[in-house]
Amino acid sequence: MVRRERRSAGKGLEFLKKNYFLYILLAPALILTLIFKYVPMYGAIIAFKDFSPIKGILGSEWVGLKHFEKFLSSPNFDVIFMNTLKLSFFGLIFSFPVPIILALMLNQIRRASVKKNIQLFLYAPNFISVVVIVGMLFIFLSPTGPINQFVIWITGEPLMFMSKPEYFRLIYILSDIWQGAGWASIIYVAALANVDPELHNAASLDGANLLQRIRNIDLPTIRPIMAIVFILAAGGIMSIGFEKAYLMQTSMNLPASEIIATYVYKVGLQSGDYAYSAAVGLFNSVINVILLISVNFIVKKLNEGEGLY
Question: CA nearest 228: which of 123, 287, 126, 300?
Fold first, then answer.
């Protein structure tokens, strides 16, 4: 047993010496991850304390799960939690297949120049900032905007898209798909580029139509990537973006637009209740970890043992 351990340790040192340059290249990313991702985790301890900036983290009084109990028993918990879950869940369900469909469609375009122009058109929205996107939404969906001009022509009165809670999720998800679906399709397009064209030619000679070729050649090629992307997306289902939701909020659509991220910002930075906001954020992170592990386990069972880890 000792000899085996020594042999494995010797092989590890030998591999390290042989590939030291790769570890040097990897070192900056590891150091940055350690500094900006792991070191700040120490601050999560304030979620269990009655934090005071004057006393500091170590000097503040330990209160245990007091802040978690306060959030779970608050009258806003059900609304905030369900708003976050619904927005994330529906966003995942409707946005996940779109990049796959776009990649499959792009893969059928044989003229390189046409394909590049279409890809440029699809990728462009990803480089528009969220602030500009929300500004465009307010302009186009305002009572006097171009969309409402068409609605008025049909119904005689405008729709308050940005004011009514029932429109918030639809607008949020559709604008997210428009902005990010093209960019998200890149990974699938790259995977499909590795498919041997002879497979499609052989399938065509055997009488397979387009849908049959996609089902039996293209989809099996990108299935492992689909599994990983889905697991990561499902694992972050509660970590919906703060910026866009906050910018789209109005006093009238608040019943649907108030999510955990915006709530943490308001109670933490605006109200100065740092310990309580840290507890809410930590609760959200724990839910994400549980979802990530659960979804990965389910996908591995359904995907012949292939998952994130």
Answer: 300
Tokens read off for 290: 């549980």
DSSP string for residues in 95-110: HSHHHHHHHHHHHT--
Residue 174 is predicted with a pLDDT of: 93
DSSP letter assigned to residue 52: -
- CA atoms of 73 and 94, how far apart (whole Å): 32
Which segments in the chain show pLDDT lower than 50?
2
Q: Give dist(CA 91, CA 173) in Å, integer.
A: 5
Nearest alpha-carbon partner for 122 in 185, 172, 189, 192: 185
- How far apart, in whole angstroms, are the C-alpha atoms of residue 274 and residue 255? 24
16-34 in b/e form (b: 16+ CB < 10 A) is: eeeeeeeeeeeeeeeeeee
Q: What's 36-57 look like in SS3?
A: HHHHHHHHHHHHHEECCCCCHH
**CA quadruple 55, 60, 61, 65: dihedral positive or negative?**
positive
Longest dimension (CA), the chain: 86
Q: What are 302's two structure tokens?
A: 């359904």
Kindly list the distances between the CA atom of residue 211 and the CA atoms of 37, 38, 215, in Å, as whole numbers in the listed order.
44, 47, 6
pLDDT at position 8 is 59
Tokens representing residue 36 in the block: 């900006």
Q: CA 76, 78, 84 angle in degrees (round to 5)? A: 100
Residue type at position 65: L
Residue 2 has what pLDDT?
47
Buried b (16+ CB within 10 A) or exposed e, 147-177: ebeebeeeeeebeebbeeeebbbebbbebbb
Q: What angle do CA 94, 99, 110 make, to 5 degrees?
A: 145
Q: Is-contact 207 194, C-beta < 8 A?
A: no
**What is the reported pTM?**
0.82
Which SS3 state, helix, strand or coil, does residue 41 take? Answer: helix
Looking at residue 248, the DSSP 8-state letter turns out to be H
